[in-house]
């Protein structure tokens, strides 16, 4: 039962779908009807005692569906993980264990799995019988309460929290499938590191797409989190960007363990942008390794990459906080990805073998998509439309090499005379 004092006369008693029942000093009960965008309208109507409908104004777009029953601790939250690659499976291991031990989380965790045949058997059946994702996270047991589901609607329809961890190219299709099929009070957490193309050019943040299409709030999680090391339970940190700080404790409960430390910040867009842009820089680090140029050169690429990340946020997402770049989602994730991530690894092979990115994805990633080259293309489209390619020479040269417009050997020549030795942000605050 959700109890929230609105004023002396109004106390919210329960939330069911889009109807909120409240108790008043004058009436036994009344209901608030929410419109299709989950906003309260401006007028308050109390015509007669008993049950009746009225609308109550709030300037908060979602009003958190009156805290989305988040304050209602008597109902354990159901969790669905939308995605089951190596990162999705590593997170499923964490979420499953937390769901087993925490009273505020429902024990059963659903995980949407794109159905594939492995040696003549369905991947979902293998996961549910052996509790192991043998294709994307072999050698790591998943908790038995994590249930693989091949239909995304069946997996997500009852969830209070949706954790999205799929390649960013598929998010619009998934949202279209889920539209109208999930709880209106659900919240989302995106672990997707990448951008999507916006209509008319430019880029669209994944969390914005989820919120816009599904009409639910979406926070983000980014950090120096290599999936294999997280699955091995090696200590690391991560960052949750959450505009609504009231959701922070719930999201932290779902994700945090003694080896996976969570810091919650309210600079959501900067957290997400860092998670996407670092994959571009990691491709550059891979080129350096493939060319055998050494650690000093790689350090220069990382530094210049961080500088362009700060500048990109300052130009396109003003109002971010410089301190966010020093969280796990920023410099820590950048360093880790440039030394140990798949974008670096595949980019090194790209230089050494001369094979295409697609060929290397099939050979080295079991067909999973590499985020760096795709993100580089999306960013370049945005920079080109605003005639700003020359202001981001590192991002631009990495895109051109991935696209076959430049040979990898030209990479260092493109950044030797980088115009920004120290970039001073104009719109980013320091705290």
UniProtKB/TrEMBL annotation:
GO-annotated molecular function: glycerol-3-phosphate dehydrogenase (NAD+) activity; NAD binding; protein homodimerization activity
Cell location: Cytoplasm
Domain Glycerol-3-phosphate dehydrogenase NAD-dependent N-terminal positions: 78-245
Protein name: Glycerol-3-phosphate dehydrogenase [NAD(+)]
Principal EC category: oxidoreductase
GO biological process terms, semicolon-separated: carbohydrate metabolic process; glycerol-3-phosphate catabolic process
InterPro entries in alphabetical order: 6-PGluconate_DH-like_C_sf, 6PGD_dom2, G3P_DH_NAD-dep, G3P_DH_NAD-dep_C, G3P_DH_NAD-dep_euk, G3P_DH_NAD-dep_N, NAD(P)-bd_dom_sf
A GO CC term attached to the entry: cytosol
Lineage, broadest ranks: Eukaryota, Metazoa, Ecdysozoa, Arthropoda, Hexapoda
Keywords: Cytoplasm, NAD, Oxidoreductase
This protein's pathway: Phospholipid metabolism; alpha-glycerophosphate cycle; Lipid metabolism
Record field: catalytic activity: sn-glycerol 3-phosphate + NAD(+) = dihydroxyacetone phosphate + NADH + H(+)
Family of this protein: Belongs to the NAD-dependent glycerol-3-phosphate dehydrogenase family.
EC code: 1.1.1.8
PROSITE patterns the record matches: NAD_G3PDH
The Glycerol-3-phosphate dehydrogenase NAD-dependent C-terminal domain, residue ranges: 267-412
Keyword Oxidoreductase in record: yes
NCBIfam families: glycerol3P_DH
Broad class of the protein's primary localization: cytoplasm
Pfam family, one: NAD_Gly3P_dh_N
Assembly and interaction partners: Homodimer.
Keyword flag NAD: yes
């Amino acid at each position: 039962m959700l109890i929230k004092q609105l004023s002396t006369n109004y106390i919210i008693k329960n939330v069911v779908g889009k109807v909120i029942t409240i108790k008043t000093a004058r009436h036994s009960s009344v209901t608030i009807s929410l419109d299709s965008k989950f906003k309260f309208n401006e007028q308050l109507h109390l015509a007669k005692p008993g049950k009746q409908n009225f609308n109550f104004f709030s300037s908060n777009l979602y009003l958190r569906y009156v805290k989305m029953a988040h304050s209602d601790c008597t109902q354990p939250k159901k969790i669905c993980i939308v995605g089951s690659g190596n990162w999705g499976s590593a997170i499923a291991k964490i979420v499953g264990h937390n769901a087993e031990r925490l009273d505020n989380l429902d024990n059963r965790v659903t995980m949407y799995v794109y159905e594939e045949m492995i040696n003549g058997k369905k991947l979902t059946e293998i996961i549910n019988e052996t509790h192991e994702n043998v294709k994307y996270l072999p050698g790591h047991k998943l908790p038995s309460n994590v249930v693989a589901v091949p239909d995304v609607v069946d997996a997500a329809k009852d969830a209070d929290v949706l954790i999205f961890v799929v390649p960013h190219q598929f998010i619009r299709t998934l949202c279209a499938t889920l539209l109208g099929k999930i709880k209106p009070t659900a919240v989302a957490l995106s672990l997707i590191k990448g951008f999507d193309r916006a209509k008319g050019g430019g880029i669209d943040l994944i969390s914005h797409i989820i919120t816009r299409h599904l009409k639910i709030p979406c926070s983000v999680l980014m950090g120096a989190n290599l999936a294999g090391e997280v699955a091995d339970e090696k200590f690391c940190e991560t960052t949750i960007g959450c505009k609504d700080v009231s959701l922070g404790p719930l999201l932290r409960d779902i994700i945090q363990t003694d080896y996976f430390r969570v810091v919650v910040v309210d600079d959501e867009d900067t957290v997400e942008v860092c998670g996407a842009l670092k994959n571009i820089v990691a491709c550059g680090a891979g080129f350096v390794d493939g060319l055998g140029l050494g650690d000093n050169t790689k350090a220069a690429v990382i530094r210049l990459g961080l500088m362009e990340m700060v500048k990109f946020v300052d130009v396109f997402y003003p109002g971010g906080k410089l301190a966010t770049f020093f969280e796990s989602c920023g410099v820590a994730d950048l360093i880790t990805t440039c030394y140990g991530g798949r974008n670096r690894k595949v980019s090194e092979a790209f230089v050494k073998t001369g094979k295409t990115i697609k060929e290397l994805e099939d050979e080295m990633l079991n067909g999973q998509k590499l985020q760096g080259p795709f993100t580089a293309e999306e960013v370049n489209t945005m920079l080109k439309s605003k005639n700003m390619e020359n202001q981001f020479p590192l991002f631009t040269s990495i895109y051109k090499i991935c696209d076959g417009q430049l040979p990898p050997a030209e990479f260092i020549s493109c950044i030797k005379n980088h115009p920004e030795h120290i970039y001073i942000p104009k719109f980013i605050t320091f705290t």
